[in-house]
Specification:
alpha+beta, 3 strands
């Protein structure tokens, strides 16, 4: 497994576009890809890859409202699955350390 983080302290610099295109290219090259939007305040990666507005995502998992396997969705792109970010859950950006370190 290889993790490729894409981050910036500023919005609007192309993180979502770069991440989506990289995931699609790796999927087309035969790699299994799990594309994850970790934005907890203004997630929009689902729009870039043409996914419907998510009902559950990383926020519902972190707050214990869903199981990890439930938040993984298929995309129309070969070998690319997706986990949506979240912007609907109040207080999500200030989670306690115990929630952040949760693992299954």
């Amino acid at each position: 497994m290889q993790i490729i983080p894409v981050a910036s302290g500023k919005g609007g610099v192309g993180k979502s576009l770069l991440s989506a295109n990289l995931a699609i290219a790796l999927g087309q090259a035969g790699k299994k890809v799990l594309l994850i939007d970790l934005d907890l305040g203004a997630s929009n990666l689902h729009l870039v890859i043409g996914q419907p507005s998510p009902k559950i995502g990383i926020g519902t998992y972190l707050t214990g409202q869903s199981q990890f396997q439930e938040i993984i969705t298929r995309t129309d792109y070969e070998n690319v699955d997706f986990i949506a970010g979240d912007s609907e859950i109040p207080g999500l950006t200030s989670l306690k350390a115990s929630k952040k370190n949760r693992s299954e």
